[in-house]
Amino acid sequence: MPSTRPIPTVDGADRPVLARGVRLSFDAARNRQVLLSPETASVLNATGAAILDLCDGERTVDEILSELRQRYHQVPEDEVRRFLGRLLARRCLVVRSG
Amino acid sequence: MDRPFGLLAELTYACPLHCAYCSNPLNLADYRDELTTQEWLRVLAEARELGVLQLHLSGGEPLQRRDLVDIVRRAAELDMYTNLVTSALGLSTRRAEELRDAGLDHVQISIQADERELSDRVAGTPSFDRKITAARLVKELGWPLTLNAVLHRDTIDRIPGIIDLARELGADRLELANTQYYGWGLLNRDRLLPSRAQLDRAEAAVRAAREQAGDMEIFYIIPDYYSRYPKPCMGGWAHHQLTVAPNGDVLPCPTAQALPLPRASVRERPLEWIWDESPLFQRFRGTDWMPDPCRGCERREIDFGGCRCQAFQLTGDAARTDPVCHLSPDHEIVAAAVRAANDPAQPRELALTPRPHPRSVALGDAAR
Q1: What is the dihedral of CA B75, B81, B87, B88, to 10 degrees?
Q2: Residue ranges, chain B, pLDDT below 50
Q3: What pLDDT, in 10s, does the model give residues A10-69?
Q4: Nearest CA to A93 among A33, A41, A20?
């Protein structure tokens, strides 16, 4: 009986931040950024790491997207939202709304 | 070959609790020659170099090690995520503050039930009140709190109360984990395995709790005896995780010490050699070792043939399909235990064999 719930949608005005007990770290053994939480370690690609780096509880999702657009040629908004939604569902992120 | 993500550090098998479902080995007295502080600090450095990101500090009761703070501090210096898996006995305010200052990331506290009398009976020692005090302390010090309740025949009907208690304590996560039958748990299995009616009620209670609003995350783990397919034990043998036992034995899973395989010890070899090359770690890695029906099964990369230790404990051969699987030629062993658990004529008054403290058992007779 897995803990499944629908992937939450993120609103442009939400301000995502890493949940308590969750942190980013650099793993020299794999040469990648990793997201660490009580039960899981996720190896991130460069984009994932860049997105989470911007999740400081101050920036809104819209602001994060616009910062990403300045850095990257193409920013697939839906994918970024889905990525954030998945991490919300896994309680790695929480949002401050409004 | 993948690098390991998690290290389960079983610092000691000493424990003030006597839970009859304990998965520690029966021969507890054989583990009294524990690794020294310096040996553990070396193991942590080797583990980090190998790619370990998460350190689960467990036992026994890890707080029984006086050097726990030093171990946590080194792990934090190595930028590992540190998780203390504890009964909470021994988690005084001073000790908790030292652990927080050393960089401990997360605390998981076991609870045996939702009220004092039953909890203390299951634990075999007065402990409930101290656990509640410690859980509040964990929240006060700003840690995320996970509560873990191991369920069995005597406690599985208490799920609604356990959920209420966890909410009241402000737990961030609640693990409701049915007993897995290893070590002392297997010895007491026929007394601990719940009935199907109990499991149905448990699932309904979990579903109802999840539908209520609230931020607490609830994990529910069924007893694999009731599954159609086996659990993907450890995510595959020597695939993501490793365990170091109190005496320095390195294991692909915490219950693998009983298997008739060559030992591997951090006292004799570097961790990297053990992970990459030791016969113990190579033995069931991947799918080449698999017998029928696993070999041709489309789920072989999903459940990896289930649990090697369970196959060994139930059939005497670690290379057989986990008997939990309905396709296993040995499935009748599990089916018979499940039938007995659901047979109203079965006597339930059998006494549980409590897990002793390793210091209280004479060498060699720990098993009975």
Answers
A1: 80
A2: 362-368
A3: 889 999 999 999 999 999 889 999 999 988 899 999 999 999 999 999 999 999 999 999
A4: A20
**Average of per-residue pLDDT values in chain B:** 94
For residue B293, cis peptide bond before it (omega within 30 degrees of 0): yes
How far apart are the CA of B54 and the nearest CA of chain A, in angstroms? 7
Which residue in the set B48, B50, B106 is minimally distant from A21, CB to CB? Answer: B106
All residues at 6 or more sequence positions from A45 whose CB lies less than 8 Å from its CB, including other chains: A32
- Number of helices and strands in chain A (H, E): 3, 5
pTM: 0.93
pLDDT given for residue B368 in this prediction: 35
B206 to chain A: closest CA residue: A1
Inter-chain residue contact B48 with A20, CB threshold 8 Å? no
- Which residue is closest to B5 within chain A, CA to CA? A41
What does the alpha-carbon distance between residue A5 and residue A11 come to, in Å, rounded to a whole number?
18
Q: Do A38 and B210 touch (CB under 8 A)?
A: no
Q: How far is A52 from chain B (nearest CA, A)?
A: 18
Write down the pLDDT at residue A85: 93
Chain A closest-CA separation from residue B238 CA (Å): 17
| Residue contact B144–A21, C-beta within 8 A | yes
DSSP code of residue B249: B
Residues of A in contact with B159 (CB under 8 A): none
CA distance B116 to B121: 8
Cα gap B120→A19, rounded to integer Å: 33
* Cα–Cα–Cα angle for B185, B187, B192, rounded to 5 degrees: 55
Is 80 exceeded by the pLDDT of residue A6? no
Length, in residues, of chain A? 98
pLDDT, tens digit (0-9, with 9 covering 90-100), for B150-190: 999 999 999 999 999 999 999 999 999 999 999 999 999 99
